Amino acid sequence: MTNPGDSDEWWKQYGGEGVSPESGAQSSVPQYPTSEPSGYPSAPQYPQQQPPPYQQPSQPQYQQQPYQQSPSQPYPQQPNYGYPSGYQPYGGPVVQGTNGLAIGALVASLLGFCTCAVGSIVGIILGVLALNQLKERPQDGRGMALAGIWVGVGGIVSVAIYFVVLLANNST
Length: 172
Known about the structure:
Helix content is 39%, strand content 0%. The protein contains 4 helices and no strands. α2 (100-111) packs antiparallel against α3 (118-136) and α3 (118-136) runs antiparallel to α4 (142-171). The two termini are 82 Å apart.
């Protein structure tokens, strides 16, 4: 059998009771000191004070003004808050739409698969020009320009692989 306390079987065998101190074995139930250490009070002692009785604060009396509405302006005018028209908050640049060269780069690169990489070369050139324009102007289309460049490169590589495979098959 295993040590008492290591097995559930031991607890079942002895009815779930702990080990007695006379047996010499350690009890699985922790033993806590029964008295408090000397010199320490059981709880902090604070001087007892009675709270002051609650008094109702005096409220000043105001005279009520009658409501007057002018017939010419039923509602008061609101001040003009915000920015004048044409300006963006925080001085942010105004986006002027998608760059046309970026669109052209993507379209030309996609057509490069049908035109034996001629369109891919045009797409790469247009993509580089579009990226240079996007550095100077706040426009959308950076992703399209990059896609046009990468699709163009992929088109040129695929056409080159096609011709290499074609020449290798013809020479054998």
